[in-house]
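Quick one, probably user error.
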């Protein structure tokens, strides 16, 4: 089902009394990190600061990166990770992960950061009352890439995901590589055979076999307080988009201590339902509604390895679904406690792909008032929804890329309180009522009413036809 050629951009719905009001930070394609108020006004724009993702710090500083490695040699590798102030001055930088010598380029140190990172003091990188990221000290957990060949997985060269922890000076204190834990991931023989043949080979010819797209510490939580060691506050949760796996690792041993996927055909996983190509799986931090539960943007689309089927004749991307959902899971009972699907936010049919669907990127953030900020990333659509699924804020990014595919995609957006930015006064909040799409017309367009109408023989009067009400043109 297609989408209209003309539609409004910026903030299109805003109900101030029902929102967690503040500033929203996102990456406006190559234009740079962009901070907007609830009415869509740009508060600050850090031109050239890429966001994989961008994150705001108390005091108006922001995280990002400044350059990406040539994709011929490194897949989605960011050259550095930087912290800049309100005026764009670099106050912290990390790039001393790997010395890279690509053909045709001078050798240089690179962070090879991708998809996520966390600064000490805050487990998830978004606003949590009483848990603020450190701005002038502390360690940083960074998701990076490393190149390996692991015959147990595939004879193809792999891009594997590596987590590192660095101190303020950039010294690497800890690291963990996912390929070293292949036997713990739960692949069946069919999946292993597919992985061996094609471990998700991407543009540079290497296998992005796991594609971890998020990583965060659990932080203080009720499960650990009750004695469940799997949920130690220092343990790390991540998800692999290409494998449909969500897992928690023990920070000390590196072992997997909790896992969901890749098999969703039995037990509690079957009740949760097939998760496909998910993003931003994280534990809701203490102090927010739903604390201790795991929040996931379950993209749908296509992902996974396994037995061939009509939509996946080679067994690559063997799970498929054409709509997205956000799910909140109790990680002990392994049950869904809240979800947001197309049918929950006004889709007239149970599942219509274009109503709520992003087959890549995207995220979900739990807000202090119990609402959830959703990034439906592929179309640059940001939604704040209540626990009862009312859309109380909606924003469509008007920033389209100027290079390659001209899309307004948003990788991940975050909401922060006004006091995170002392440089400016909080803006005036102006409600924006939803447009009645049935009645709204552009200048020059005719009304919806029929200019001429006749009764068809055998019918009586005027009534409902095909779901709308016929109306006589007034004299």
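Nope, works fine. Designed sequence:
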């Amino acid at each position: 089902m297609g989408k209209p050629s003309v539609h409004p951009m910026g903030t299109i719905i805003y109900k101030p009394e029902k929102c967690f009001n503040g500033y929203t930070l996102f990456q406006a394609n190559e234009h740079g990190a962009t901070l907007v108020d609830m009415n869509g006004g740009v508060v600050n724009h850090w031109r050239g600061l890429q966001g994989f993702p961008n994150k705001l710090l108390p005091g108006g500083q922001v995280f990002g990166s400044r350059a990406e490695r040539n994709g011929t040699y490194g897949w989605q590798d960011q050259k550095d990770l930087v912290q800049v102030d309100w005026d764009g001055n670099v106050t912290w930088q990390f790039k001393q992960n790997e010395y890279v010598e690509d053909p045709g380029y001078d050798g240089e140190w690179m962070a090879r950061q991708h998809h996520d990172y966390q600064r000490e003091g805050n487990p998830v990188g978004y606003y949590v009352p009483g848990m603020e990221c450190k701005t002038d000290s502390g360690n940083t957990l960074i998701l990076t890439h490393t190149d390996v060949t692991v015959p147990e997985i595939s004879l193809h060269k792999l891009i594997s995901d590596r987590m590192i922890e660095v101190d303020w000076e950039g010294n690497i204190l800890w690291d963990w590589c996912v390929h070293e834990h292949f036997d713990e991931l739960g692949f069946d023989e069919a999946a292993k055979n597919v992985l061996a043949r094609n471990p998700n080979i991407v543009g540079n010819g290497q296998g992005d076999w796991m594609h971890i797209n998020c990583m965060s510490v659990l932080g203080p939580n009720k499960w650990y307080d009750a004695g469940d060691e799997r949920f130690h506050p220092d343990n790390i949760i991540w998800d692999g988009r290409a494998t449909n796996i969500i897992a928690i690792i023990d920070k000390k041993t590196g072992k997997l201590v909790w896992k969901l996927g890749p098999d969703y055909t039995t037990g509690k996983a079957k009740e949760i339902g097939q998760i496909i190509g998910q993003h931003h799986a994280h534990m809701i931090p203490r102090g927010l509604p739903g604390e201790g539960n795991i929040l996931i943007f379950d993209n749908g689309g296509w992902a996974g390895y396994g037995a061939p089927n009509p939509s996946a004749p080679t067994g690559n991307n063997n799970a498929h679904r054409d709509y997205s959902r956000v799910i909140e899971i109790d990680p002990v009972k392994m049950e869904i406690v809240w979800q947001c699907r197309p049918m929950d936010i006004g889709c007239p049919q149970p599942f219509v792909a274009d109503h709520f669907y992003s087959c890549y990127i995207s995220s979900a953030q739990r807000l202090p008032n119990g609402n959830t900020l959703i990034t439906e990333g592929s179309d640059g659509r940001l939604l704040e929804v209540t626990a009862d699924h009312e859309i109380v804020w909606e924003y469509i990014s008007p920033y389209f890329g100027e290079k390659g595919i001209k899309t307004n995609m948003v990788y991940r957006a975050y909401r922060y309180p006004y006091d995170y930015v002392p440089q400016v006064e909080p803006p005036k909040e102006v409600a924006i009522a939803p447009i009645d799409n049935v009645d709204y017309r552009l200048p020059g367009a005719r009304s919806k009413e029929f200019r001429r109408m006749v009764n068809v023989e055998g019918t009586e009067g005027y009534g409902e036809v095909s779901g709308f009400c016929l109306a006589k043109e007034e004299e």
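The helical segments are 189-197, 222-225, 267-272.
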